[in-house]
């Protein structure tokens, strides 16, 4: 991988972490709390079957949540640019809390489908808003990668703690489980309202002040960006591959004569690796070209999961888990940060919303596709994973039609460099190659203008 030529003057990554703005830590605290109580996606099927619903009916409810996730991601991106980051996060937390709290009193399948679907929508509103806020409050490539690394660390830590806490609550009472979920979501919203405040930031780094809600741009304009379309396609394929760790892997483990406990150990290994090493990995790749980091991450994930078919004992299966976990950490360390550098001023929320929707779409349909291919032929699944991994890696590299050479951007992306075609997809200065014109006011390295949410 090529290094960033302009990154020689950047401070050590550890120092960058210490100097991150307070807003990064506040939002990360909020997501830690939120994920500690994010029980519904994990336990909703068990809850419904315990209430006498069939597995098929529970699947319908879960499907409504998945559809809501996609819609919520897109809506959250729009609201982040219109209402502002702070109030979108607050709206997500409060609405999700209210809807989740009523689930224990629902007594029909139709009501469960509607309410859980609305929960799926409301619970995703915060994602593009939080990502846009992180993008807004930093000004360099290295800060952008560091901010998202901290955010993901908090998210993963919260998810790990939430799994244990959720299991304990479910064993006592599902009502307590859903009320605990609601409390965590409400607290996330309260953190956003009380600890984040609206202030203009444009004067601090020479960028246009976008602290006020804007109608500049639309999803139609965003999707006119070839680089974004290529990035979104890559995201869907990458998530189709990665989600097979929850479909193809457990099926292969049991068919190899191993147990569900063995699968739990493998997934636990992945969780430990990500928690311990994702921040160090982010520090290692921060000065590398984002397109190369994304490509190598996708390739490692695809190869690691494809090799699962050849592993029939715990040692070799653990080795494949290590490989695709490294790929996951490389990809995840730079994806949001890279997109933040690609986003025009006034459209950061929409770009992040489309990314979140593509992510959710891939993880939503991936299990269905993976299970269907596995039922047809197990080796067909591993072959498909390998091919898909290669395709997603290739989509990260610049198109041959790019009129200029790849920019020496860092893993976070350089807002200025991204105009020369060095992006994940088709290049060319904005306004060329069918891409949307570049809005004014985007002059700093940090990407789009800063938003209203501030510590």
UniProtKB/TrEMBL annotation:
<dbReference type="InterPro" id="IPR011701">
    <property type="entry name" value="MFS"/>
</dbReference>
<dbReference type="GO" id="GO:0005886">
    <property type="term" value="C:plasma membrane"/>
</dbReference>
<keyword id="KW-0813">Transport</keyword>
<keyword id="KW-1003">Cell membrane</keyword>
<protein>
    <submittedName>
        <fullName>Putative Major facilitator superfamily MFS-1</fullName>
    </submittedName>
</protein>
<feature type="transmembrane region" description="Helical">
    <location>
        <begin position="293"/>
        <end position="311"/>
    </location>
</feature>
<dbReference type="InterPro" id="IPR036259">
    <property type="entry name" value="MFS_trans_sf"/>
</dbReference>
<feature type="region of interest" description="Disordered">
    <location>
        <begin position="405"/>
        <end position="455"/>
    </location>
</feature>
<feature type="transmembrane region" description="Helical">
    <location>
        <begin position="353"/>
        <end position="373"/>
    </location>
</feature>
<feature type="transmembrane region" description="Helical">
    <location>
        <begin position="231"/>
        <end position="251"/>
    </location>
</feature>
<keyword id="KW-0472">Membrane</keyword>
<feature type="transmembrane region" description="Helical">
    <location>
        <begin position="317"/>
        <end position="341"/>
    </location>
</feature>
<dbReference type="Pfam" id="PF07690">
    <property type="entry name" value="MFS_1"/>
</dbReference>
<dbReference type="InterPro" id="IPR020846">
    <property type="entry name" value="MFS_dom"/>
</dbReference>
<keyword id="KW-0812">Transmembrane</keyword>
<keyword id="KW-1133">Transmembrane helix</keyword>
<dbReference type="InterPro" id="IPR050171">
    <property type="entry name" value="MFS_Transporters"/>
</dbReference>
<feature type="transmembrane region" description="Helical">
    <location>
        <begin position="177"/>
        <end position="196"/>
    </location>
</feature>
<feature type="transmembrane region" description="Helical">
    <location>
        <begin position="60"/>
        <end position="80"/>
    </location>
</feature>
<feature type="domain" description="Major facilitator superfamily (MFS) profile">
    <location>
        <begin position="23"/>
        <end position="401"/>
    </location>
</feature>
<feature type="transmembrane region" description="Helical">
    <location>
        <begin position="263"/>
        <end position="286"/>
    </location>
</feature>
<dbReference type="GO" id="GO:0022857">
    <property type="term" value="F:transmembrane transporter activity"/>
</dbReference>
<feature type="transmembrane region" description="Helical">
    <location>
        <begin position="24"/>
        <end position="48"/>
    </location>
</feature>
<feature type="transmembrane region" description="Helical">
    <location>
        <begin position="379"/>
        <end position="397"/>
    </location>
</feature>
<feature type="transmembrane region" description="Helical">
    <location>
        <begin position="146"/>
        <end position="171"/>
    </location>
</feature>
<dbReference type="InterPro" id="IPR005829">
    <property type="entry name" value="Sugar_transporter_CS"/>
</dbReference>
<feature type="transmembrane region" description="Helical">
    <location>
        <begin position="112"/>
        <end position="134"/>
    </location>
</feature>
<feature type="transmembrane region" description="Helical">
    <location>
        <begin position="87"/>
        <end position="106"/>
    </location>
</feature>
């Amino acid at each position: 991988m090529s290094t960033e030529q302009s990154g020689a003057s950047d401070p050590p990554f550890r120092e960058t972490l210490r100097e991150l703005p307070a807003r990064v830590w506040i939002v990360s605290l909020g997501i830690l709390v939120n994920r500690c109580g994010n029980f519904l996606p994990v336990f909703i099927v068990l809850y419904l079957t315990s209430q006498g619903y069939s597995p098929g009916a529970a699947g319908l409810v879960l499907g409504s949540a998945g559809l809501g996730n996609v819609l919520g991601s897109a809506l959250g991106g729009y609201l982040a640019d219109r209402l502002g980051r702070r109030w979108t996060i607050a709206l997500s937390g409060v609405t999700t809390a209210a809807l989740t709290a009523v689930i224990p009193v629902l007594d029909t399948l139709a009501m469960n489908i509607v309410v859980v679907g609305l929960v799926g929508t409301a619970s995703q509103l915060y994602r593009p808003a939080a990502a846009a806020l992180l993008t807004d409050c930093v000004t360099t490539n290295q800060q952008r990668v560091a901010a998202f690394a901290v955010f993901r660390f908090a998210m993963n830590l919260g998810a790990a703690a939430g799994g244990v806490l959720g299991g304990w609550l479910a064993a006592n009472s599902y009502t307590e489980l859903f009320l605990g979920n609601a409390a965590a979501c409400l607290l996330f919203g309260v953190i956003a309202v009380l600890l984040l405040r609206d202030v203009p930031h444009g004067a601090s780094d020479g960028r246009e002040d976008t602290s006020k809600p804007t109608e500049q741009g639309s999803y139609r304009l965003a999707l006119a960006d070839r680089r974004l379309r290529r990035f979104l396609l890559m995201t869907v394929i990458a998530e189709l591959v990665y989600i097979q760790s929850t479909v193809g892997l457990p099926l292969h483990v049991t068919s190899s004569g191993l147990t569900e406990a063995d699968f739990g150990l493998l997934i636990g290994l992945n969780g430990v690796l990500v928690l311990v090493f994702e921040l160090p990995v982010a520090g290692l790749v921060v000065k590398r070209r984002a397109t190369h980091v994304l490509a190598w991450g996708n390739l490692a994930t695809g190869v690691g999961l494809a090799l699962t078919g050849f592993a029939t004992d715990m040692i070799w299966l653990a080795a494949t888990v290590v490989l695709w976990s490294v790929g996951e950490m490389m990809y995840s360390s730079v994806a949001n940060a890279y997109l933040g550098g690609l986003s025009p001023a006034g459209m950061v929320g929409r770009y992040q919303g489309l990314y979140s929707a593509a992510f959710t779409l891939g993880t939503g349909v991936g299990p269905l596709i993976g299970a269907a291919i596995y039922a047809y032929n197990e080796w067909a699944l591993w072959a498909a994973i390998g091919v898909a991994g290669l395709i997603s890696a290739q989509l990260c590299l610049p198109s041959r039609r790019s009129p200029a050479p790849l920019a020496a951007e860092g893993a976070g992306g350089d807002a200025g460099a991204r105009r020369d075609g060095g992006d994940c997809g088709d290049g060319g200065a904005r306004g060329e190659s069918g891409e949307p014109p570049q809005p004014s006011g985007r002059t700093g390295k940090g990407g789009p203008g800063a938003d209203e949410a501030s510590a």
